[in-house]
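Supplementary Note 3. Input sequence used for the single-chain structure prediction.
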Amino acid sequence: MESWFWELLIGVGRLFIHPVLYVTLAVAIVLGYFRVKRERYDFHIRVEYGLTEFQKACKSLLAGLALSVLTLGLGFILPFGTVVLISLFTILFTLFIKPRWLSTAYIFGFTLLGVVLLPRFETGVPLIQRLFDSLGDTHLPSLALLMGILILAEGFFVLKQAPFQTSPQLQKSKRGLPVGSHVVQRVWILPLFLFVPVGTGGMETSFEWWPVLQMGEHTVSLWLVPFSMGYYQRLKSSLPREVIPAVGRQLLFLGMLVLTISIASFWWENSAILAAVLAVVGREWLNFRAKNQDDKRKPLFVLRDNGLVILGVIPETPAEKMNLQIGEIISKVNNIPVNSVSNFYEALQQNRAFCKLQVIDKNGETRFAQCALYENDHYELGLLFVQVGKKWNQTKAV
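The predicted structure, written as C-alpha cells, is reproduced below.
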C-alpha cells in the first residue's frame, strides 16, 4: 500500500515535467493575446479578458483528474515510446496555432497509425530505435479504447463549454462590406493516469528507491500524462449557442462509434486501425460539414434597412444586465427607429436618465429591454454592431 501511495505522488509530479502541459498552456495564452488584439482593432475594446482561454484550459485539468479514476480502473498500459509519440504529434500540431488540429481524433489517429508503421523501420540510432521497438509492444485495442474515451470527453467539452464566451470578429464580404462573425477557439488539457512499463522503450531505472509497481507480468510506473484537445470554428450565418452544441453531440456520436469499434478490436485487433481511420476521417468530415452549412446560409451579422443586429455583448455592462443576446435585433431606441450606429447613439441621447430598447429575438417576437442611466455611468451600453466607417473592419461599442 505504501508503494502505491509513493508512486501516486511521483506520478502526479511527472505531470509538471511533461512538455505537453506547458506547450498547451502557452498556446492558450497566445490565442487569448491575438484574440484581444483583433478585438481591439475591430472594436477598439476587448470583449473577454485575455486569459479566458488559459483559464478554461486550467479548469479542464480537474476534469482529467476525475476521468483518471476510470483509466486507473481499466488499467491502461502504454509503452514509453507510445507516450512520446503522442506528445510529439501534440507538439507538432500546436505549431499551427489552430486549435482544431489538437482534436483527439487527429492526435491519436496518427499516433495509432505510427505505432503500426514505425517499428518496421531501422534507424541505426540506439535511443530512437529503442523507442521504435517499444511501439511494437503497444496493445492496439487499449490505445484505440483510450482514443474513444478522449473523443467522448472532447465532445462533452464542446457541448458544455465552447458555445459560450465566443469572440466577435469582422470580415470583408465579396462586395467589400463588413460582415460580422463569431470565432470559437478552445484548448483543453486532460491529465490521465497511465501505467508505463519499466525497463522497455527507453524507460529505464537504475535506482533502488525508484517506485515501481507489479501488475501481473508487468513491472510498471504510474504516470499522470496530459492529453491536449482543441476546437475551432468560425460562424457568420448561425448563432454559436445553436450550432456548436449540435457539433458537440456529433462528436459524442463519433466517440461512441470509435469506442464500439475499439471494443471489437479486443477480438479482432485490426479493428483498432479501422477505429483510427474512422476517427480522423469522421472528425475532418464534421469540420467540413459545419463550415459548408454555415457558408450556404445568408450572413446573419450584416447591415439592415430596419434595425441593428447585436454582434457582441460586453460582460458587466448595462447590455448584459438587460439580458440582450447575440443575434437579436434592436429596432427602436426610446421609441425612435434605428438602422445605424450613429442614429442609435442619437436616439440614446434623447433621454440621458433612461434607456428603452425594442428588441426582436431569434423567434421573431418583440420584447422591451430597459434600464436607468445614472450620471456617473459611462454612456456606452456595451453593445457591438457592424458599422460602415472609414475602415470597413472597424466598429465601435455603443
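Residues 78 and 196 are 5 Å apart (CA to CA). Confidence is low (pLDDT under 50) at residues 200-216, 392-398.
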